[in-house]
Specification:
144 residues; 10 helices
């Protein structure tokens, strides 16, 4: 289906078949295929394969495409697993969107991040709310 997508691609058939695949590399090729062909259905594919993929590798693959924001809804769903790569990707998305309330909630609820690196990035930010979050991170790490 991926090789002959204009004539043979159907989302429902593709999702039925991809869950039966044993080769994990094909999952990541499928992500790239969906990114090119059907980017609006990418979250559905990620949700379907969430238990079968390495989330850290999936985040890295999407970071390399510079389109990580497309899978933000999926990342919010799996953030409860408290995986460092997922938390850091979401925090970066929140910062780019200037969604400081979500960023603050993410930092408070999910502690598996490099908080000192994030604090250094936030302390020089132009916006006051970013500097407040940086102070929160420093206080949390007892670095006054």
């Amino acid at each position: 289906m991926m090789e002959h997508s204009p004539s043979s691609f159907r989302h429902d058939l593709f999702t039925q078949n991809i869950i039966k695949v044993a080769n994990h590399d094909l999952y990541y090729k499928a992500f790239m295929f969906y990114l090119e062909e059907e980017p609006m259905l990418l979250n559905d594919l990620f949700k379907l394969l969430a238990t079968k993929i390495d989330l850290t590798r999936a985040v890295q693959v999407m970071k390399n495409t510079r389109k990580i924001a497309l899978i933000a809804p999926f990342l919010k769903n799996v953030q409860q697993l408290n995986i460092s790569a997922v938390n850091e990707a979401l925090n970066k998305i929140y910062l780019e969107n200037e969604d400081f309330e979500s960023l603050r909630a993410s930092i408070k609820d999910f502690d598996c991040i490099d908080s000192l690196e994030l604090a250094v990035d936030l302390e020089q930010h132009d916006l006051l709310e970013c500097r407040r979050i940086a102070a929160l991170l420093y206080r949390k790490n007892k670095r006054f």
